[in-house]
Amino acid sequence: MEDTGTVVAFWILATVTVGSALMTAAVRNLIHAVVFLIVSFVGVAGLYITLSADFVAVTQVLIYAGAISVLLLFAIVLTPRGSRDNAESFLRMPALVLALLTGATLGYVALDTEWSIAGRDGFEETASAIGEALLDRYVLPFEIASVLLLMAMLGAIVIVRPEGANEEGAE
Amino acid sequence: MRLDAKWYDLRDIGNAVGALLEQINDCGAPDWVPYVVSSLIGVVGILLWTVLSVLAFIWIERRVVGLMQNRIGPNRVGPFGLLQPVADAIKLLLKEAITTRNSDKVLFWLAPIVVFIPTLVIFAAIPFGEKMVLADLNVGVLFLIAIGSINTIAVFMAGWSSNNKYAMLGAMRTIAMLISYEIVQVLVLLGAVLFVGSMRLGDIVAWQDDYNTWLLFMQPLGLLGYVIAGAVEMNRSPMDIAEAESEIVAGYHTEYGGIKFGFFYQAEYLAGFGIAAIIVSLYMGGWTLWGLEDWVPGWLIFLAKMYGVFFIYIWFRGTLPRLRIDQLMGFAWKFLLPLALVNVLVTGGEVLLWQEAGLSAGEALPLFGVVNIALAGALVVGWAIALGHRSRERVAHRAILTNELGAIYYGEASPRL
Question: Which residues in chain A have their CB less than 8 angstroms from residue B142's CB?
Answer without folding.
Answer: 55, 58-59, 62, 127
